[in-house]
Amino acid sequence: MSQKLSRRSLIAAGVSAGLAPLAKSEFTTNIFIPKAINPVVISSANGNSVKNGGSETCVQTAFRLMTSGTDILESLIAGVNIVESDPADTSVGYGGIPNAHGVVQLDSCCMHGPKKWAGGVAALEGVRNPSKVAHLVATSTDHHLLVGKGAQDFARNMGFEIEADLNTERSRKVWLEWLRRTDPEHYLDPSKRHSPPPTAKSGMEATLAMAQEGWLDPEHVWGTINCNGINANGDIAGVTTTSGLAFKIPGRVGDSPILGAGLYVANEAGAAGSTGRGEANLFNLCSYLIVEELRRGAHPKDAGLAALKRVAVNTIEPRLLNERGRPNFGLNFYILDKQGRHAGVAFTPSRYAVCDANGPRTENSEPLYQ
Ligand code: GLY
User: Which residue among 32, 176, 245, 252 is least enclosed by CB atoms within 10 Å?
Assistant: First the structure.
């Protein structure tokens, strides 16, 4: 919360501190002095579930590091590395659901508020922790985004191990099932090879059916983790990392590595990031829109709902609408402002992760539609 001071009280404070009163021409009437900031880290809900065999979740690790003096962005990246490395989350990093050709392609970006650094990688293969490579793009190059083979060469040159395959047994099994459903003339189900082949379905239809049948976590069709934090100095940073849309066309890049879409940070205003259908967010550049709303003084919840309303207005194709004429896909935003206020917002009821001095927890996001 800010404290608005009157000109009279400021002059009195200055005089009592032995300072000369400011001349009127040097004086602005809207001076806000922020109270101490309570540090907080927020993320998508998966930031407070998987632990990769350790004792802490993403938001716990990021909060612990951030409040013990580690750089704000490095703290957040250490947090999301847990989710990237844990194959239990099939929407991020190692074990993420592969593209239509069975190859895991990863996207990530990060922004450092006070240093005004930004970096991203897209369609990166063979590196479990793309957020670390995105961080190096920000800190060690003159660029903001490296893609594909170039991003992989950069990672190799920076000392990363390039793995031949980031699939796990589970992600490969899920992909093979998807092939059986979408390409039944080539990929037979051994147990049914004497039955008539199933009808080939469109890729997305097969994906959604598999989510309904439990092959895929419905949250992991688009998946992703976004994590944002503010420290006691009021410094803000954010990071987003994903394996992207399950079974995507090879080379498809979603919103996650794109500044202004999957993430935006302005140290003087706040941070926003996303999970969910990247195409809807790319079209509307929602994270930038949300941070500009924060800059105008909006509460994080209202800033996020404004972005969802923009997406809803711009979603007009029948294939993307439900029977009520509303978007039929998931899209979530995680928002933090300069005062440390935060919110999650989504089209329908959802959750987001928080860690502050009261510890880690998962809270309700604000739904646009009940
Ligand atoms: N939001 C993640 C993606 O669409 O790739």
Answer: 32
pLDDT in tens, 233-290: 999 999 999 999 999 999 999 999 999 999 999 999 999 999 999 999 999 999 999 9
pLDDT at 83 over 90: yes
pTM strictly above 0.85:
yes
Check the CA dihedral 56-61-63-68 and report its sign.
Answer: positive
Which residue among 90, 207, 281 has the greatest number of ligand 1 atoms within 8 angstroms of its CB, and so is best to mutate? 281
| Residue 142 CB neighbours (<10 A) | 5
Q: Which residues line ligand 1 (CB under 6 A)?
A: 222, 224, 242, 244-245, 254-256, 275-278
As a whole number of angstroms, the distance between CA 122 and CA 284 comes to 19
User: How do the domains of the chain map onto residue ranges?
Assistant: 40-167+217-367, 169-213
- For residue 276, give the ligand 1 atom closest to its CA: 1
**Ligand 1 pocket mutation, candidates 220, 255, 287, 329, criterion most atoms within 8 A of CB:** 255
- CATH 3.30.365.10 for domain 40-167+217-367: no
